[in-house]
């Protein structure tokens, strides 16, 4: 299963397909030296680790690290677009406004 956070509007469909094709318990991207849990691939075998992390209220990155995921690095991600943009989350009104402005500039 591929998971994407609801506030990540710039994830390329091709990246989702690439993640889905990886045969591993977990797969994630590494951008700016940081392992990103979303978008990511999580097989059913990852559920015990994910559930235990949820029960402890542990950070998602901690659970992801425990799964030792297959990683897609920035070089591979560039084939789908700007790596930082694809993993960007829009959590504030200011981030949303900046994203909207960016989209207007591109069209």
What is this structure, in a nutshell?
With 107 residues, this protein is α+β, with helices and mostly antiparallel strands. 45% of the residues lie in helices and 19% in strands. The chain has one domain: Spore Coat Polysaccharide Biosynthesis Protein SpsA, Chain A, CATH 3.90.550.
Commentary on this structure:
The protein has 107 residues and is an alpha+beta fold. It has helices spanning 13-21, 47-56, 60-66, 74-77, 83-86, 93-106; strands spanning 2-3, 26-31, 34-42, 70-72. The chain has a four-stranded mixed beta sheet. A hairpin with a 2-residue loop joins strand 2 (26-31) and strand 3 (34-42). The longest helix is centred in the C-terminal third of the chain and has 14 residues, at 93-106. The radius of gyration is 14 Å and the shape is globular. 24% of the residues are buried.
Spans of at least 5 consecutive residues whose pLDDT stays below 50 are none
Give the strand content. Answer: 15-25%
Please give the CATH class.
Answer: Alpha Beta
Gross CATH architecture? Alpha-Beta Complex
Helix content: 40-55%
Give me the side-by-side strand order of the main sheet: 1-3-2-4
Tally of domains? 1
Count every helix, treating DSSP H or I runs of 4 or more residues as helices. Answer: 6
Class based on secondary structure composition and strand pairing: alpha+beta
CATH superfamily: Spore Coat Polysaccharide Biosynthesis Protein SpsA, Chain A
C-alpha geometry: globular
Oligomer type: single chain
Topology pattern, helix = H, strand = E: EHEEHHEHHH
Q: End-to-end distance, in Å? A: 32 Å
Mean of all residue-level pLDDT scores: 94
CATH fold assignment: Spore Coat Polysaccharide Biosynthesis Protein SpsA, Chain A
């Amino acid at each position: 299963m591929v998971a994407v956070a609801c506030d990540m509007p710039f994830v390329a469909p091709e990246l989702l397909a690439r993640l889905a094709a990886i045969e591993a318990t977990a797969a994630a991207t590494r951008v700016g030296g940081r392992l990103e849990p979303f978008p990511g691939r999580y097989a059913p075998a990852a559920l015990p680790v994910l559930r235990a992390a949820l029960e402890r209220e542990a950070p998602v990155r901690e659970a992801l690290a425990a799964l030792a995921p297959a990683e897609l690095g920035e070089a591979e991600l560039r084939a789908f677009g700007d790596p930082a943009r694809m993993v960007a989350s829009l959590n504030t009104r200011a981030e949303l406004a900046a994203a909207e402005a960016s989209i207007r500039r591109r069209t």
